[in-house]
Design goal:
139 residues, five-stranded antiparallel β-sheet
Length: 139
């Protein structure tokens, strides 16, 4: 998900941290397991205010921001950590442990510069060569 925070906004992210957020962020999550794509729908509802949400780290961010885009990569494999590792090579990770409390990744949240969209697309294409990423634009 690409999330925009019109800020600066001081946000408390559950028990993880409190800090200032401003600008564009890229969040990597998984729709594998129970709930699957319903989780993506839930995040969109939290973002629009039609659903309460303080379950996942990203809920705190999207409640105060706006989801600009969602990218889905159809796959039988769980790609979340692999994608986060690839993105960490080119995008900064501003919050240690964000979205990654159940794995060994540094973070699943990245600072995002829209001018670097081509690099994002290249990374998305690499993670699952057999499947084309599907983009949803919410603007």
């Amino acid at each position: 998900m690409i999330i925009s925070i019109e800020g600066p906004s001081e946000l408390k992210i559950g028990n993880l941290m409190q800090g200032e957020f401003d600008g564009e962020y890229l969040y990597v999550g998984s729709a594998h397991g129970p709930g699957g794509l319903q989780r993506v729908t839930r995040h969109i509802k939290v973002s629009t205010g039609s659903s309460d949400g303080e379950h996942w780290h990203v809920d705190y961010l999207i409640r105060s921001g706006e989801i600009r885009e969602t990218w889905l990569i159809p796959s039988e494999r769980d790609l979340e950590c692999e994608l986060a590792a690839g993105l960490s090579e080119v995008f900064d990770q501003p919050v240690r442990g964000f979205g990654s409390s159940d794995c060994d990744c540094f973070s699943h949240l990245f600072s995002y510069d829209p001018d670097r969209k081509e690099e994002l697309i290249r990374r998305l294409d690499r993670v699952e060569p057999e499947s084309k990423p599907i983009r949803f634009d919410w603007e």
